[in-house]
Give the backbone structure.
Amino acid sequence: MNSDPARRARFEAMALPLAEALYRLARSLASQVDEAEDLVQETYLRAYRTFDNFVAGTNGRAWLFTILYSIARNRHRQDRRRPPVDSMTDLEATDATVPAIDWGSAERLLRELDNTRADPAVRKAVAEMPHEWRMILGLVVIEEMSYDEVAKIVECPVGTVASRLSRARRHLTRALIDREGLR
Amino acid sequence: MNPQARALSERLQAYLDGRLSDAQRVALERELAENAAARSELDALRRVSEAARRALAEPVPEGLLDRIRGTLDVEDRESDESRVDTTSGGVSRRFWLVAAAAVLGLALLTFVLRPSPEPLPSAVAQTMLDYERGRFALELVTADVAELERFFGRRGIRFSTRVLDLRMMQFELVGGTVHELAGRPTVAFAYSGPAGLQVLCQMYEGSLDELPPTADIRSHGGIEFRVFEVGRVKLAFWREGDLICVLASTGDLEGLVGLAFAKAMKV
C-alpha cells in the first residue's frame, strides 16, 4: 500500500470524528490512560492499513469498534500477568451463587450517591469485570448501541449480550453497595 | 437468583434498553405499577447505568488526535519509502533511468545465469518481511478461525484452508488475507506468539517439487518438511493434500520447525 492523499483524507473524514467514542470504549477496557490511548492508536493504524476493505456508507463506528475489540482481546489473552480468575466461566458461576441484591436498599444508595466519591469506585468495579462484560457494558450503556450491533462486534448471540449485560449491571450495583466508602 | 427473579430482571433490563415490543412494554408498566420491588430494581439499574456512563466518560487526552495523525504519517512515509523514487536527490531523471536500466540488465543476466532460481522461498520470505514492517496488511483482523475461513471463501478461495487454532502452543491468530504468491492464489494468515514473535502461514495449491533443493529436510510423523533460510527469514514447507503449507518467521529456526510439526500434525 502506498500513501494516497485522497485515501488518507477519506479515512480521516470517516474515522477521526470517532476518536472520542473509541477512546471511551478503550478506557472501559484498559485500566490505565496510556494503555487506552495505545489501544486507540493501534486501532487507527490497523484500520488505516485495511481501509480499502471498508465499504463506504456502512457503519464505520461498528467497524472501528470491531477492530478495537479484536486488538484488546488479543492483548488481554497474551497478557499472562493477569490472574486466571478472569475467566468467564468462573465469574459467571460465582455470579450465580452470590446473595440476591436488596434492590430497595440499592435504589436508596444510588439515589444518594456522591458522584465525586462514586466515580473511582465505579471505575474500579468495571476494571474488575471480565473483559467481555466491560466491552458489552461500554457498547450498550455508554455508546448506546443495539444488542444486535454489539452481538456482531463481540461475536456472540444476542441472548448472551443480554445476560452478560445484566450480570455486569448487577456486579456494578453490588460493588457500589459493598464499597465501604459509599455506605 | 431464582429463575423467576432472573426473568423479571431481564425484562426490566430489556425495558431500560428499549428492547421490548409495545405490548411487552405496556404489560411490564402495568406490573411495575403494582410491584414496588420491581420499581426499585428498575430505578437502581437506571441509576447504575448512569453512574457507569458518567464515570467512564473521561475526556480524550489532549493531543490524541495529533498523535493519531502522527501514526498515520509514519505509516504513509514507510509506504512511500518502499517505492523507487526516480527523481530525488537533485540528480537528473536521465541518470536514474540509465542506472535503473543497468541494474535491470545486471539482474536479468544474473537471473538467466542462475542454475537454480528460488522464486517460492524468496517470495514467501519477502511477504514475511513486508508483514513485519507493516507493508503486508491483513484484510481481516480476527482471532476467530471460522470467521477467517468464511472470509477466505468469500474472497474466492476454493481449497480448504484449514486455519488452525494454535493457542495451545501460545500462538494467537491475528487475521489473514488473500494474495498472489509467485502468480498463484494464496491465503496468508498470521499468528502472534510469545514475546511478540510473529509467524506467517501461507497455503497454496502446488507441490514440494517446485521448491529448489535444500540440504535441510526434516521428517516428523511421516510428513516431510523442507526448511530454508532466506536472509533472516526461516521457512518450513510441507504438503497437506493438494496444498503446500509454509510457515515463516524471523525468530528461532528450531522453534519455527517445531511449530510447523505441531500444525501439520493437528490437521
